[in-house]
Design goal:
The protein has 318 residues and is mostly helical. The protein folds into 2 domains: 206 residues, Rhodopsin 7-helix transmembrane proteins (Rhopdopsin 7-helix transmembrane proteins, Up-down Bundle), CATH 1.20.1070.10; 34 residues, no CATH class. It contains 7 helices and 5 strands. It has a 3-stranded antiparallel beta sheet, with no helix packed on it. The protein has a two-stranded antiparallel ribbon with strand order 1-2. Strand 3 and strand 4 form a beta hairpin. Helix 4 packs antiparallel against helix 5. The longest helix has 59 residues. It starts with a helix and ends in a 7-residue tail after the last strand.
Length: 318
């Protein structure tokens, strides 16, 4: 949708620059109709994705429509086409001050302007609520892992503190100093294994941080892309149109799609991270893969370093 909006915006930019005038007739009306259609569809699509993510993560409700995916697209297209066709029927599209979008001289343009304002506010509120709820749910899982690790570290520090008091020559073995009730616990309590976060937990915490940044960036980009449309629509309704509002609206509409693409590629670029992890571990060991095994050996080929062979199934590597 962002790509379609950018393609439609190009004639609106280059034609006035070359001809020093706007398009007239059906061409200008068609450009306004398609521009409004893509903008509202993009808003509806963003709201739908946020709602699906919220239902999947927070409510654990998975929507597998399968061959009925057209229902989702129908829910997006119906309100979009309704607003666009009503505005077109009332001659709301046509030449604007700077481009072909809204015909300010016709009362039908107010239908589209009010719809844009309402859709912008509703989509922004829905997107913010859904993604903030997802971030909260994700951080609840992060807190669970962090509490598990912090609890082990707290027991470790208390154990060393208690051990120091026992070995101190100035203290009695039966000291009455209270260290969170540790003196009443059996000695076997302090000899249990102190577990550190496993590789799976560390990987999960890393994915949690990545997902949080991703959701936060979606909220920021949503507000960055569609807030100028609200300002633009309000300025037309109040007859206070300014050049900087038009420039800001056109720039943010196009840069918003570019920013979304950049964030998507960056958040889903796992190949570079895998190479970086291999590079970090390259000074310690090398690995080679045969048909059914992975072997680890030391770079310097020292004899006192054991060679560990882990046999895995080939299907687990895919």
């Amino acid at each position: 949708m962002d790509f379609g909006t950018s393609i439609v915006t190009l004639p609106n930019l280059f034609f006035p620059m070359q001809k020093d005038s706007l398009m007239i007739g059906n061409w200008c009306t068609s450009l306004g109709f398609i521009t409004s259609l893509f903008i509202v569809m993009n808003m509806m699509l963003m709201a739908s994705l946020a709602l699906i993510t919220y239902l999947r993560i927070c409510k654990r409700y998975v929507m597998n429509l399968g061959k009925y995916d057209w229902i989702l697209f129908s829910l997006i297209l119906f309100p979009t086409l309704t607003v666009s066709f009503v505005t077109w029927y009332l001659n709301g599209f046509g030449p604007d001050t700077f481009w072909c979008f809204i015909n300010q001289e016709e009362t039908g343009s107010r239908v589209n302007l009010i719809a844009l304002i309402v859709f912008s506010y509703v989509v922004t509120i829905m997107t913010s609520f859904c993604y903030m709820s997802v971030i909260k749910r994700i951080h609840n899982a992060e807190t669970m892992f962090a509490d598990s690790y912090t609890k082990n570290e707290r027991y470790k520090s208390k154990f060393y503190s208690f051990k120091t008091q026992l070995l101190s020559p100035t203290s009695d073995h039966f000291s009455t100093t209270i260290i969170d009730g540790l003196e009443i616990r059996p000695p076997s309590f302090f000899y249990g294994p102190i577990t550190a976060p496993t590789a799976a937990q560390e990987r999960t915490l890393k994915n949690i941080a990545k997902a949080t940044r991703k959701m936060s960036s979606y909220i920021f980009l949503q507000m960055l892309q569609y807030t100028p449309i609200i300002i633009y629509s309000l300025c037309i309704l109040m007859n206070q149109m300014q050049t900087w509002v038009y420039v800001l609206t056109v720039v943010m509409l196009n840069l918003g799609g570019v920013a979304k693409s950049f964030v998507f590629m960056k958040s889903n670029n796992t190949i570079g991270e895998e190479k970086e992890e291999k590079k970090k571990g390259g000074n310690l060991c090398k690995y080679k893969k045969s048909s059914n095994e992975i072997c680890f050996c030391d770079d310097n080929k020292q004899k006192d370093v054991p060679i560990i062979t882990v046999v895995v199934n080939q299907k687990d590597l895919l």
